[in-house]
Amino acid sequence: MTASTDTAPLAASGLRKSYGDQEVVGGLDFALQRGECFGLLGPNGAGKTTTLRLCLGLTEPDGGRITVLGEPVPAQAREARQRIGVVPQFDNLDPDFTIEENLLIFGRYFGLSDADIRPRIPDLLEFAGLTSRAKARIQTLSGGMKRRLTLARALINDPELIFLDEPTTGLDPQARHVIWERLRNLLKQGKTLLLTTHFMEEAERLCQRVAIMERGRFIAEGAPDQLIENTVEPHVVEVHGDGVRDWATAQGKTLAERCEATGETVFCYTHDPAALIADLDGRPALRYLHRRASLEDVFLKLTGRELRD
Fold this sequence. Notes:
With 309 residues, the chain is of the alpha/beta class. It has 2 domains: 10-222, P-loop containing nucleotide triphosphate hydrolases (Rossmann fold), CATH 3.40.50; 233-292, Alpha-Beta Plaits (2-Layer Sandwich). 35% of the residues lie in helices and 28% in strands. It is built from 12 helices and 14 strands. The protein has helices at 48-56, 77-81, 99-108, 114-117, 121-128, 143-153, 173-188, 200-206, 224-231, 244-255, 274-281, 295-303; strands at residues 10-19, 22-31, 37-41, 63-68, 71-73, 84-87, 161-165, 192-196, 209-214, 217-222, 235-241, 258-262, 265-270, 286-292. The strands form 3 sheets. The protein has a 6-stranded mixed sheet with strand order 6-7-8-3-9-10, with helices on both faces. The protein has a 4-stranded antiparallel sheet with strand order 2-1-4-5. Strands 12-13-11-14 form a 4-stranded antiparallel sheet, with helices on one face. Helix 7 links the parallel strand 7 (161-165) and strand 8 (192-196). The chain starts with 9 loop residues before the first strand and ends in a 6-residue tail after the last helix.
């Protein structure tokens, strides 16, 4: 179900942007539903960052229409930004101030008085798990702490819509799971999230809907489980070991519906893995992992496995 563009927290139609002869965003149409997490996925250079900048009113579109919380963008981008939060890809906390001071100063950018901001700080520190570190300097924080603070800072104005640009990049698994828990709490509060990420597991866990971009256009859109069901075979067997490519050519391609080789691993996709696994169990030189298909398999099938700069 697609949100009505009249009531959607964020809606775009016919959105276009080119730089010289290169079309970076090629006529996108989408609308977020209130209270959902919408994932914007794609390889490097697909147009995700430009799309975010267009929606934030930081880049002028060449064509199309954008509304953010009912405000036309970029014409009323400043008014719209008063009601949104942004978690940038890279932390831009002020190292000269404490955690508490960072929140206080950032709140002033929204025209909030100190009397309005200070009562909000304890709840934001608790949300970030940093209550005991309120007076700590930024340089003393771990990467996970800085990321949680950046997320909490984006909530200082109690935004209705939050843009999250790769919020867990560079974090260890423990810190990533903590951020996921915080984002789920925001969804429970009725916030609307626009998420860009290169972690397909993150998108699969958090997003009600995702759109996969390639060369400025959406090539797939829908709920993660629906995309998995409609795009790839349900079983994946990852095979590696001595002679794996020879095995794939001689046996794998007859036992699986689709095989893809990347480096020293062959990915076999099938609806029924029984014969494939039986064959592999008789080959001690090969090792394998049998798993269910994931959103990452969808992403790789649609965008390819080659590296992007």
